[in-house]
């Protein structure tokens, strides 16, 4: 009953939960056991068990039933502090999909007592990266049986998948990032958002020199790429044994109309920014600072609410600007409305018109869209980090409402300029 209470501990006190369980048993004439009654109380509070395909999308705790397809471990490893740990994993499935259930330390030994084909009720915390993985906090065997997508007969191969040769277009690419392996050694990796006619994908390169000099928009032939079967979304990895060369053709990535976006789909869309809110700072459950931002995209098929997370939430966006969004996921919001979520593993590209060179004098100000220069008539979004409040003259390239400075010099405004600017603001901002 402990793991059922954890699903509703924000709604009831332990005493209230126990009282409701006891009341449920009494109302059934003592025909229910404590476990079944606890499930009924959880379901009555709107926190029922979910299908496996819904598990990775949940940010906190979740509970589900899964049939064991295969098991691995336990394996021992050394932590950085010198202590010894162990880990084991189960591949479990239902009729909606499969997921890796990871058990750590003392719980890892439980796999020795489990058999392929048994059904478990699992309570755990989904991995924050969105991968098809959950860290088990509690579990129990159940006497019921469930079907899997392949009739429950499939046992997942624990070996590596065969390498593939792919032709992909690079949408975005990060700088090399250092990481520490479990054995304490350091390495580097690069992440990219890529795609082809089949849709978008995430590419993880464990040998950064392979992607040296590659720019967004490049069409590549990648040999030795391996599909990551543990990821919930389409993902490939490539290492030192891989090879990357220019593709012999231009790779295109199809866009979905906003009206075609469905819950659970991973897609690329293109549209105009119909509305955008300022980014909001929040603290994650890990205690880290992050950002979130809401907006609306519009195309010929309609409008769709978009939620930007992390670094994408801090991107400068302007109303009516045309943007492309890649590897975003359709989800249901708190009110049940369909939304498109873009964050880790997604890419945002501003489809700027042909730039022109202009010269403008004004004041550097902060707005809901980002830092701008205001000349008293028009406000241009600045690509760069000029000092707030500075009066400057900028020569730069203008694309849409984005101004990329080429040269910048401070100026001292005269009294007539300040007076005209004040009159303009009064005329256009009078309540």
Summarize the structure.
With 431 residues, the protein is mainly beta. The protein contains 4 helices and 24 strands.
Describe what this molecule looks like in 3D.
The protein folds into five domains: 1-48, no CATH class; 66-157, OB fold (Dihydrolipoamide Acetyltransferase, E2P), CATH 2.40.50.140; 164-246, Beta Barrel (OB fold (Dihydrolipoamide Acetyltransferase, E2P)), CATH 2.40.50; 258-350, OB fold (Dihydrolipoamide Acetyltransferase, E2P) (Beta Barrel); 356-429, OB fold (Dihydrolipoamide Acetyltransferase, E2P), CATH 2.40.50.140. Helices cover 10% and strands 45% of the residues. It contains four helices and 24 strands. The chain has a five-stranded mixed beta barrel. The chain has a five-stranded mixed beta barrel with strand order 6-8-9-11-10. Strand 7 and strand 8 form a beta hairpin. Mean pLDDT is 82; it is low at 151-160.
Question: Helices and strands in order, then pairings?
Answer:
Layout: H1 2-6, H2 14-27, H3 34-44, E1 62-78, E2 84-94, E3 97-104, E4 119-126, E5 133-142, E6 164-173, E7 177-180, E8 186-196, E9 199-205, E10 219-227, E11 235-238, E12 243-246, E13 266-276, E14 280-283, E15 289-299, E16 302-309, E17 322-332, E18 338-342, E19 347-350, E20 356-367, E21 370-374, E22 379-382, E23 391-399, E24 402-410, H4 415-429
Parallel strand pairs: 3-5, 9-11, 16-18, 22-24
Antiparallel strand pairs: 1-2, 1-4, 2-3, 4-5, 6-8, 6-10, 7-8, 8-9, 10-11, 10-12, 13-15, 13-17, 14-15, 15-16, 17-18, 17-19, 20-21, 20-23, 21-22, 23-24
Helix pairs in contact: 2-3
């Amino acid at each position: 009953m402990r793991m059922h209470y954890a699903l509703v501990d924000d709604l009831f006190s332990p005493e209230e939960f126990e009282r409701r369980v006891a009341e449920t048993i009494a109302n059934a004439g003592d025909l229910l056991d404590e476990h079944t009654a606890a499930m009924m109380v959880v379901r009555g509070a709107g926190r029922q068990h979910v299908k496996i395909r819904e598990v990775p999308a949940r940010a906190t705790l979740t509970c589900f039933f899964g049939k064991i397809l295969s098991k691995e471990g336990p394996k021992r490893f050394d932590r950085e502090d010198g202590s010894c740990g162990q880990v084991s994993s189960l591949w479990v499935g239902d009729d909606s999909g499969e997921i890796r259930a990871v058990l750590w330390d003392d719980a890892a030994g439980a796999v020795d007592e489990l058999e392929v084909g048994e059904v478990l009720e699992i309570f755990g915390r989904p991995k924050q990266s969105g991968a098809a993985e959950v860290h088990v906090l509690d579990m129990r065997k159940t006497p019921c049986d469930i079907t899997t997508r392949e009739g429950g007969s499939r046992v997942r191969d624990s070996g590596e998948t065969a390498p593939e040769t792919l032709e992909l277009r690079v949408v975005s690419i990060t700088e090399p990032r250092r990481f520490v392996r479990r054995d304490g050694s350091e390495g580097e990796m690069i992440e990219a958002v890529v795609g082809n006619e089949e849709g978008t994908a995430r590419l993880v390169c464990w040998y950064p020199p392979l992607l040296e000099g590659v720019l967004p928009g490049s069409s590549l032939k990648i040999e030795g790429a391996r599909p990551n079967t543990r990821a919930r979304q389409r993902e490939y990895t490539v290492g030192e044994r891989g090879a990357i060369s220019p593709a012999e053709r231009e790779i295109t990535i199809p866009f979905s109309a906003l009206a075609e976006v469905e819950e659970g789909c991973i897609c690329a869309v293109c549209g105009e920014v119909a509305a955008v809110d300022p980014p909001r700072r929040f603290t994650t459950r890990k205690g880290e600072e992050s950002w979130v931002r809401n907006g609306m995209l519009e195309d010929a098929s309609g409008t769709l609410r978009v939620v930007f997370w992390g670094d994408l939430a801090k991107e400068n966006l302007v109303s009516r600007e045309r943007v492309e969004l890649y590897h975003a996921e359709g989800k249901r919001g708190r009110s049940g409305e369909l939304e498109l979520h873009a964050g880790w593993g997604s890419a945002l590209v501003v489809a700027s018109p042909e730039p022109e060179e202009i010269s403008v004098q004004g004041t550097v100000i902060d707005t809901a869209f980002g830092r701008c220069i205001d000349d008293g008539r028009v406000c241009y979004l600045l690509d760069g980090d000029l000092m707030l409040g500075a009066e400057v003259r900028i020569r730069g390239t203008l694309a849409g409402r984005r101004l990329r400075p080429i040269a910048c010099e401070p100026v001292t405004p005269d009294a007539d300029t300040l007076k005209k600017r004040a009159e303009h603001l009064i005329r256009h901002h009078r309540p």
